[in-house]
Recover the amino acids of this structure.
């Protein structure tokens, strides 16, 4: 493949000389073929629905709802529902620190041992973290938070690699925006339902403090549903796209050394390394937002923020996904326009938030906003808009990845890399948040690192192919 084509959106394999294929009948095995996708429609209507990429994306969205969705629900009310944010921010830094290494590792392992085992593993570590928050609130066992953060970090590494591969790799190119929106929108139902539970329990808490302990019990119960849902996922050799073709993977089991070699090759592609700044920085402000909510808002106001943010993000995910798939001006122009719009909005929001923080830091009396307090609208709206824009960035970068021509296994590796750098950004963000620096300093850092990502992401939008294909390059053996 020529360098020109590579720069226009194709991610090439490491070596095209040898291709190995292996076929088995195991449910988690993958079709051993490098040919064009094979048309395969089951006779049963139920089987066609069960094996459809839409059903699989819905299931992975529901899994995401029960796992990171509930984690987000806890964090969105301010530092895991705790009264003091610093210990939980430190634990979150540990979680994402493990994910910096884990996401890429599990992305490579997915191509070796199969998608479903990795996905199942990803459902096992979130509930212990929520249980640790419960124990700390009731018994003061801070050590349990760090133990739970460790199990969560390992499980999240597996889940993030697997769910992203399904959401981006299973649909056809023309459906990836909407399907990514469905996946991310369903994840926000975790925050929506979690916030509704919290609001019903904490509706009378008009002062600052920790969330009611009953909240944790309800949310842990929801997280336990993730494992049985993971058993419903179809492996790539059985999942059927809307055009009647299979989602194909090249070999049943790959060599680990080969997968890491291919991982390194992908990292050297401009479509990936120019995305690193935005992956590291677009969620950086989340740590500040957690501190902002905890410092200035009552418990029920924080819970209301979680609820309304979730509703807005669900609607935004679906609308942005549909907009990106429409590509009315062509995919490349859509990518350019969308990123320029995002950049302008984010710069405006940072200016608004800095003015708020400046005002509240210098108030003669410590600001505490309840939902019926004067000035609540100004203080709350900017936080809501930040949540919406963070989610909008999320769907945009995964749609951007999906515009480039890659086979399913390359998508799996690329998603692992992307989530590695997302985790790196969150690690650094929460590390800053766990230090007792002023909120204004935290906010200024968030703004500076986001500004760095604007030109590099714009460069990626120029590389988007005008008419991407579902036929990525074949996988090569080394």
């Amino acid at each position: 493949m020529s360098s020109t084509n590579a720069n226009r959106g194709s991610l090439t394999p490491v070596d095209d000389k040898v291709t190995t294929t292996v076929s088995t009948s195991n449910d988690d095995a993958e079709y051993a073929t490098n040919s064009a996708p094979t048309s395969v429609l089951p006779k049963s209507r139920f089987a066609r629905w069960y094996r459809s990429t839409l059903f699989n994306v819905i299931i992975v969205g529901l899994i995401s709802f029960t796992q990171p969705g509930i984690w987000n629900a806890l964090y969105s009310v301010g530092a895991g529902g705790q009264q003091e944010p610093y210990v939980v921010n430190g634990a979150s830094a540990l979680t994402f620190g493990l994910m910096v290494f884990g996401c890429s590792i599990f992305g490579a392992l997915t191509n070796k041992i199969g998608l479903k085992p990795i996905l199942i593993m990803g459902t096992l570590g979130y509930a212990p973290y929520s249980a640790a928050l419960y124990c700390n609130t009731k018994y003061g066992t801070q050590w349990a938070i760090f133990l739970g953060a460790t199990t969560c970090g390992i499980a999240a590494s597996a889940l993030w690699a697997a769910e992203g591969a399904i959401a981006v790799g299973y649909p056809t190119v023309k459906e990836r925006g909407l399907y990514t929106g469905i996946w991310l929108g369903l994840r926000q139902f975790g925050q929506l339902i979690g916030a509704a539970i919290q609001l019903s329990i904490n509706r009378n808490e008009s002062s600052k403090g920790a969330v009611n302990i009953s909240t944790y019990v309800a949310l842990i119960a929801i997280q336990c549903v993730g494992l049985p849902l993971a058993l419903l996922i179809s492996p790539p050799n059985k999942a059927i796209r809307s055009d009647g073709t299979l989602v194909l993977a090249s070999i049943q089991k790959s060599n680990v050394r080969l997968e890491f070699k291919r991982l390194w090759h992908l990292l050297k592609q401009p479509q990936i390394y120019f995305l690193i700044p935005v992956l590291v920085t677009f969620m950086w402000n989340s740590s500040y937002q957690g501190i902002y909510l905890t410092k200035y808002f009552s418990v029920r106001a924080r819970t209301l923020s979680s609820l309304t943010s979730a509703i807005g993000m669900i609607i935004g995910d679906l609308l942005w996904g549909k907009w990106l798939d429409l590509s009315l001006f062509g995919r490349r122009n859509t990518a350019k326009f969308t990123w320029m719009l995002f950049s302008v909005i984010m710069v405006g929001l940072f200016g608004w938030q800095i003015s708020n923080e400046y005002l509240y830091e210098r108030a003669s009396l410590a600001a505490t906003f309840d939902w019926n307090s004067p000035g609540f609208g100004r203080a709350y709206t900017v936080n809501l808009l930040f949540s919406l824009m963070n989610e909008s960035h999320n769907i945009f970068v995964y749609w951007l990845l999906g515009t480039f021509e890659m086979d399913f296994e390359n998508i799996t590796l690329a998603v692992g890399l992307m989530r590695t750098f997302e985790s790196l950004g969150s690690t650094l963000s929460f590390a800053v948040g766990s230090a007792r620096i002023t909120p204004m300093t935290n906010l200024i850092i968030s703004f500076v690192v986001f500004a760095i990502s604007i030109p590099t992401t714009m460069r990626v939008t120029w590389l988007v192919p005008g008419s991407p294909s579902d036929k990525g390059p074949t996988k090569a053996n080394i």
Notes: The CA atoms of residues 112 and 256 lie 7 Å apart. Confidence is low (pLDDT under 50) at residues 1-37, 78-83, 472-478. The chain has one domain: 38-463.
